Predict the 3D structure of the following.
Amino acid sequence: MNNPQLNKHGELQHLLSTEGLPVRIMREILDRAATFMDEANGGEFKKVPLLHGKSVFNVFFENSTRTRTTFEIAAKKLSADVVNLNIGSSSTSKGETLLDTVDNLCAMHADMFVVRHSSSGAAHLIARHVAPEIHVINAGDGRHAHPTQALLDMYTIRHYKKEFHNLRVAIIGDILHSRVARSQIHALTTLGVPEVRVIAPKTLLPSHVEKLGVQVYHDMAQGLKDVDVVMTLRLQNERMQGALLPSAQEFFKYYGLTQERLALARPDAIVMHPGPMNRGVEIDSSVADGPQAVILPQVTFGVAVRMAVMSTLAGNTP
Ligand code: CP
């Protein structure tokens, strides 16, 4: 089947999802990201001219702190010209369609779009619509995918754990509404993690989730036992329809990551969270700020991974 992310040479043309992304390309992105981090100099990012003369448009129809900002920093480190479209004050509010907005930005000579949208499939739609030489990066679409988040998570895991083939990874919380969880699961299984667990109440799991290659747990004590990596998720209240949970307090009581529960994982387990965190709902502050948390390094690695994605795309022709 035709892969909409790849060009005719099998190279990355757009980054839309980790589903169907070849392991070769995932590993190339992780390796390239490492070259942008000056580890010997405290993890400073190198400024390079790889996107000199190119225009990157950040088009975020949903709020963001980490993704939008790290894409901007990454594009500037690659010497691109960066335009952040302020959707709140754009003509979208006057009824302009998504594709008309994109056409107008293309007329301003956009070379690359970074798109976040509440509708699943928005980035795919734009990728199909634009001229072949323009690249599209999905920065989160509805509950579907958030591929650069998953790739920076893989970078983080590899940084701390070195290998993927010997790991047990647990993803906890609102799997049903989480584009991050879906992208993480595809990335983890593609990179060869042998045991990926999801821990959640039945109401927060997609039906047939085990078909994604994960083991399902409803009990934190069982699910966390001996894992190497713990990935927590926010309750995506903005995507919930109806009452799927009695309350946030009830969720914390059964599924909150506390120090007592974390002690069931391996002693050297790392704790990850894509952000934004809700302390006292999915994670206790003592864990979020504790020695096993790598939540802020995830953000830092996000700059390097986004530099890797954008420079890879810019190097590929249709
Ligand atoms: N992880 C993530 O996507 O965070 P933001 O919503 O702040 O971009």
In short: Residues 41 and 240 are 44 Å apart (CA to CA). The chain has two domains: 23-144+299-314, 147-297. The pocket of phosphoric acid mono(formamide)ester is lined by residues 64-67, 140, 149, 274-276 (CB under 6 Å). The longest strand covers residues 135-141.
